[in-house]
Amino acid sequence: MNMTNETANGFGEQLFRQLKGVSGEKRQKLIEEINLSLGFDEPAIRERRHANRLRCPTCGTATSASIVCYGKAKPGSDRQRYLCKSCGAFFNDHTGTVLHRTKKLERWPLFLKYLLDGQSIRQIAKEAGISPTTAQAWRKKLLTHLAEKMSSTLSGIVEAVEISVKTSYKGKHKLYTPASKTRETLVFCKSRNGNVCVSHGSLQELKQSCKNSDILWHTHLIPATPISSAERRLLHTKQADAIAGHFANQYARMRGTATTNLPLYAAWHQFQHETRHFTQREKIRRLLFAGL
Ligand SMILES: [Zn+2]
C-alpha cells in the first residue's frame, strides 16, 4: 500500500497538497473544490444510487406511483427524501449506502484518498479532519460493502481455491492465549466473467450458501475419469490460484489482521489489485461510488 508514482502528477494532487497547513474557511473551500473535481455531490450520489430504479429499501417496491418525493433529508440539504406509499417507510438518497448517517460527508473523498495512500488510521483521521473512531468506522463500512458486493456477483464458471492461514489474535487481550495454534480457511473465487469474491470458511460452506444453482465450480479436485486436453483447458483454476497466491504472500508479511476482518481485508486487497493500473483519481471515484 505505497504511494504510487502516478499520484505525483495525477489529478488534484496539487489540491490535496494545498490542504497542508490551511485551515478555516480556506480549507473548506479547497475541500469543496476537490469534491467538485471528483464529481462528488448529492445529485451525482442520487443518480448512482438509483441508477436502475427508485426502489423502497424496506418493502422493495419499485412501482413509480408508490414512491413520492417528501421534502429533503435535512433542511438546506440537496438530499432527497422519499415516502413509500406501499409500506409507509421514509428513506433518502443515502439509505442503504455507506454514506447513511455519515456526518462530515464532505470529508469522505479526503478519507478515501489517504486510505488509498496506505496511511494509518491515525494519520487518515488527522489529514481528513475526522476522529480516529470515525475513520475506523468508515473503513469498516466501506470494506464490508466491497466484500458483500463481490460475493453477490458470482455466476457461471467459477474457479475456487481454498487457502489456509494462521489465526491471528490481534486485538485480543494478551492473556488470551489459545489452547492450540489454529488456522483459518479462506476461499478465493474468480468467475470467468471477471468477478472475484473472497469468503471466510470452507468451500463446502460457500457452495451451500450460494443459492445461485447455475454456478459451475472449478476446483483442484482430481476428476475420477481422465479428461480430454480440451476439457483440461477449461477446467483450470489458474486465475483463482494467482489471486490467492498474491494474497497469501502479502498476508505472510503482515503482522496479522483480526480473523473476523479477513474477508474485509481480502476484499480491499482485491480492489487494489484490480485497480493497480488506474490513476489515483479513478481509484477514488471507484471507491466513492462503490459504496452506493
Ligand atoms: Zn416500501
UniProtKB/TrEMBL annotation:
Alphabetical list of InterPro entries matching this protein: Transposase_27_IS1
PANTHER family, per database record: INSERTION ELEMENT IS1 1 PROTEIN INSB-RELATED (PTHR33293)
The protein's name in its UniProt record: IS1 family transposase
Source species: Cohnella lubricantis
